[in-house]
TrEMBL record, chain A:
It comes from Kribbella caucasensis. Residues 760-780 are annotated as: Disordered. It comes from the Bacteria. The chain crosses the membrane at residues 27-45. This is Isoquinoline 1-oxidoreductase beta subunit.
UniProtKB/TrEMBL annotation, chain B:
Residues 75-152 form the [2Fe-2S]-binding domain. It comes from Kribbella caucasensis. This is Isoquinoline 1-oxidoreductase alpha subunit. Residues 7-55 form the 2Fe-2S ferredoxin-type domain. GO terms for molecular function: 2 iron, 2 sulfur cluster binding; metal ion binding; oxidoreductase activity. It comes from the Bacteria. InterPro entries: 2Fe-2S-bd, 2Fe-2S-bd_dom_sf, 2Fe-2S_ferredoxin-like_sf, 2Fe-2S_ferredoxin-type, Beta-grasp_dom_sf, Diverse_Oxidoreductases. Pfam families: Fer2 (PF00111), Fer2_2 (PF01799). Keywords: 2Fe-2S, Iron, Iron-sulfur, Metal-binding.
């Protein structure tokens, strides 16, 4: 296959003319020495990603619009591609171990579609696994920032396209006919005389004994038959039959159920266990040891661990925020708010402050991990979005070399930012090392809410000056308890900081803020700044980082501004928007959602807009704030206003899988409803009061709109935008704006029911409540 | 430690466990039946929802001693056999609507949905939106609207 070897000069030539006939793009990869066909590709920056710098005046583009967080991740990925590879097996299936986490976002389905498209292989013959920690990939193994589709779209297709080409060439050589005479379809190569060969039959012959560079052409968008069409999840059958194996379901020999009795404040410690013998004597219990933040208990069943937690008598040491409650944190935030730069214009100024309570990013599957720590090695199984950092940290913690720690990535029952961190894996490793036995650690539901990561409390202050129908300045000062980015993005920033078109010596959080936030409006002098206070809560990203709060505050002020200028909210936005894709989405939403239709008193529509991750969303919702709805009786749940109808219009750049994209929009909407109306943590004396899903009021069936519609705009790009987090911010804003219009009062503290504690808190000790026994009284 | 016997997914089984251990742990930790998920063990999230004698219940909140030898426990794994097919119509509806996201809550959602539909059928009435509002199963991925569509579609075929 000498004709496919390319010297560096030749590849430079190709780069100059990378789009050949049919608008196809020529790409490079490697045939890897392996027993069956294997193709590797370097992890190249997705140069298709549009740079949507907007030349609109008078507001200069903010950094996010030139270069966003995803671009940064792409850039960081470029030089460290390692090799990600597609392998073809003799049974005709293609296998790709994706260095990302599947947490419900449908990433494996989208990747399978990319492979199926370029390889001309049926979806059911594409198998996607989750790669173990691969240190050689450096920061290429991070699932976050809604970046997976953006960074993997080209490399995965490249590998598959090269594999297809190699199979064709192999068949051509065997049949003595030019490769151009052959076609591929459904995993079969066909020749002009009706001769056929399955990919499986060619897999060995197509293999190479030395690794060589090859090039191939990607299909153009017009040739796609898989990408862009709706596909169901690849794991759907396993899910509905109960066969899908989550981390919690994984069995490792002798890794017995383990839980931890915890102190009554966040990050509290153990001074002494006062009844160790009694706890060890509990039925089914095998081991009890003190660890950094609690008393670890290993037993035959998780239920017996919970039983043992009930009897633990320990003396606890202080935590990291013992004296903090909602009010003290808010006072500290207000003291840290950065000043506005532009003085108020007296009667022509809007000054507003919004407060957002702590929120939990806990998924439904409790945090869990299996650890088997031996004297000279360790093996870890956990859901990890940044497994390399977990591997490094755990190795350091255990006093082992990195290569002695094997880290496997589990399928997760949700993430929402939680699995960026490896807290539970590190704790499992600590326990296994101390007990000298394998453990299957699960945090209890209550642990997840009280000791787990949170989206931190924050305030957003906005000042707008306007005059004679124009907006002169828009200033936003976002102040937050620090968000922990210790999951390793920091390394990436450090390594690529020189390339950032961001002036000055910004802190890491400020950089993330700057790269993810921008105002889509022509509002004159525009500044959005972040300040953080260094309180030691356990924090992290939560299905977006800053956008839901920043955008909610901005859009509420936009509605108020529209009112001051005597304009309808949608018309006002049309007049001031400088993002054309957002404008198109808004127009579509207004038309399909019948903006401005007559509503009964106490009900209203609201609209919210947001562009991020190279995507754009307009959300239009209807809310019912009438007393009969607000006060509808719900046992052990909050009722309150109900969003009755929701429309999400999304421009995803290039839509890979409409069905998956729609799912992400629906999920983002439900998160938004929760953040706006019902879900928050109440911090009291150093710990959240919430301990169950009937305390932390995530959206339930009785809160969800009965009418939900997602509209996908025609493709505006050859590259996919991020989708996982995209809908949360605009939908949050839409719900808040609708509430303000329905009630005539602009909400300033979120969620709106935060001021009223809607439940009786579980005691702080025991840290995990005992399970009920009356389940048979509640059958239906 | 006592030996407990009951019918699980069509088979009479025996298991040694302390009387007070909740059935969820007997199923998951001792018998390796992992379709019913652990989400809270507080009878709140409903991700362990299974059936006892055809009715929905939460094994996280029932002690194994309270299960009688004649009781028939059905988990998601045994649901298709209750209709003698590869998939129960509700599971098929779930596939048709591509309901699942992470999937962790879905076995419980499906078991609750089947019971809810049967309840309405037993009362000789159509399933209503208000019935669906009563379902307490958490879906933290928020695929609620597809769950509602799937239940209505699945009910048509039950």
């Amino acid at each position: 296959m000498a004709e496919h070897r390319r010297s560096p000069n030749q590849s430079a030539e190709m780069a100059a003319d990378e789009r050949g006939r049919l608008g196809r793009r020529r790409v490079l990869g490697y045939l890897i020495a392996a027993p069956t066909l294997a193709v590797g590709v370097t992890w190249i920056a997705n140069s298709n990603d549009p740079q949507t710098a907007d030349a609109a005046v008078p507001t200069l583009p903010q950094p996010e619009q030139i270069f966003d967080l995803g671009d940064l991740q792409n850039l960081a990925a470029a030089p460290t591609s390692g090799l990600i590879s597609v392998q073809l097996r003799t049974d005709g299936t293609a296998y790709f171990a994706v260095p990302r986490a599947e947490v419900g976002q449908g990433m494996t389905t989208a990747i399978a579609m990319m492979v199926a498209e370029e390889l001309d292989l049926p979806m059911d013959k594409v198998s996607i696994g989750l790669a173990d920690a691969r240190p050689e990939l450096l920061m290429n193994q991070l699932t976050g920032g809604s970046n997976s589709m953006r960074s993997m779209f080209l490399p995965v297709r490249t590998a598959a396209a090269i594999a297809r080409q190699r199979l064709v060439e192999t068949a051509a050589a065997q049949w003595g006919t030019p490769a151009s005479n052959l076609t591929t379809r459904d995993g079969v190569v066909s020749g002009p005389t009706g001769r056929t060969a399955t990919y499986g039959s060619l897999a060995e012959a197509a293999a190479t004994s030395t690794t060589i560079t090859v090039s191939a052409e990607l299909k153009s968008r017009s040739e796609f038959t898989v990408l862009g069409r709706p596909h169901n999840r690849v794991d759907a059958v396993d899910i509905v039959t109960g066969r899908k194996q989550f981390g919690m379901d994984r069995q490792v020999p002798n890794a017995k159920p383990t839980m931890v009795a915890r102190p009554p404040t966040i990050n509290g410690t153990v001074k002494s266990i006062n009844n160790l013998a009694a706890v060890r004597a509990m039925p089914g219990i095998t081991d009890v040891v003190a660890i950094s933040h609690g008393v670890a208990i290993r037993g035959d069943t998780f239920g017996q661990c919970i039983d043992a937690i009930q009897v633990v008598d320990a003396t606890w040491g202080p935590g990291t925020v013992d004296n903090e409650s909602d009010a003290t944190v808010l006072a500290k935030l207000r003291a840290a708010q950065l000043p506005m730069a532009v003085p108020p214009l007296l009667s022509n100024t809007i000054d507003a402050e919004f407060v957002f309570a702590f929120a939990s990013n806990s998924p439904l599957e409790p945090d869990c991990a299996i650890a088997d720590v031996r004297p000279d090695s360790a093996e870890i199984w956990a859901s990890l979005k940044v497994p390399i950092v977990a591997q490094e940290d755990i190795a350091k913690q255990l006093g082992l070399p990195i290569h002695a720690v094997k880290v496997h990535v589990n399928q997760a029952g949700g993430s929402f930012g939680r699995h960026l961190f490896h807290d539970v894996a590190a704790e499992a490793a600590e326990i296994s090392q101390k007990m000298g036995k394998p453990v299957k650690l699960s945090w209890s539901r209550t642990d997840n809410f009280r000791q787990g990561r949170t989206h931190p409390m924050c305030t957003s202050r906005v000042r707008v000056n306007y005059l004679a129908g124009n907006v002169l300045s828009y200033e936003q000062r976002h102040t937050s308890v620090q968000t922990d980015f210790g999951h390793g993005l920091g390394e990436m920033i450090t390594s690529t900081a020189a390339h950032l078109p961001v002036a000055g010596n910004l802190s890491f959080a400020e950089t993330i803020f700057t790269l993810s936030q921008s105002s889509p409006y022509n509002f004159g002098v525009t500044t959005q700044l972040l300040n953080e206070i260094p309180l030691k809560f356990n924090t992290g990203s939560m299905r977006n980082i800053y956008s839901p709060n920043v955008v909610c505050a901005e859009e509420l002020v936009v509605d108020r501004l529209a009112a001051k200028l005597g304009q309808d909210p949608v018309r006002f936005r049309r007049n001031f928007l400088r993002d054309k894709r957002l404008l198109a989405a808004l127009n579509k939403a207004a038309e399909v959602g019948e903006w401005g239709k007559a509503m009964p008193k106490g009900m209203a529509q609201g609209v919210g807009l947001h562009a991020e991750y190279r995507g754009a969303v307009a959300a239009l919702v209807e809310i019912d704030c009438r007393p009969e709805t607000v006060n509808r009786p719900i046992p052990d749940g909050v009722s309150g206003p109900r969003v009755t109808k929701a429309l999400i219009v999304v421009d995803p750049g290039f839509c890979i899988n409409p069905r998956g994209l729609e799912a992400q929009m629906i999920g983002g909407l439900q998160d938004a409803i929760a953040l706006a109306l019902t879900s928050s943590l109440h911090i009291k004396d150093g710990i959240p009061l919430e301990g169950s899903w009937d305390n932390y009021f995530y959206t339930r069936q009785w809160n969800t709109p009965r009418d939900v519609q997602v509209l996908i705009m025609p493709n505006t790009s050859d590259s996919p935008s991020g989708a996982g987090e995209l809908a949360v911010a605009p939908a949050f804003a839409a719900v808040a704006c609708a509430y303000a219009r329905a009630t005539g009062t602009m909400p300033t503290y979120f969620p709106i029911n935060h001021g009223k504690l809607g439940f009786e808190p579980h005691p702080l000790e025991p840290s995990t409540p005992q399970s009920p026994t009356d389940g048979l009284d509640h059958t239906f | 430690m006592a030996t407990h016997t009951f019918k699980l997914n069509g088979k009479q089984i025996s298991v040694d466990a302390e009387d007070n251990v909740r059935l969820l742990w007997v199923l998951r930790d001792l018998l390796g039946v992992t379709g019913p998920k652990y989400g809270c063990a507080l009878e709140v999230c409903k991700s362990c929802t299974s059936h006892i004698n055809g009715k929905a219940f939460n094994p996280c909140s029932v002690q194994v001693k309270d299960i009688q030898p004649a009781d028939e426990i059905t988990t998601i794994e045994g649901l298709p056999a209750t209709v003698g097919k590869e998939l129960h119509p509700m599971q098929q509806a779930w596939l048709d609507m591509d309901v699942s996201q992470c999937g962790y809550c879905q076995p419980g959602q499906i078991m609750a949905a089947v019971a809810k539909v049967k309840q309405a059928q037993a009362e000789g009435r159509e399933l209503t939106e208000a019935d669906l509002d009563e379902l307490r199963n958490i879906c933290r991925c928020g695929t609620y609207s597809r769950i509602r569509e799937a239940i209505k579609a699945g009910a048509e075929d039950m």
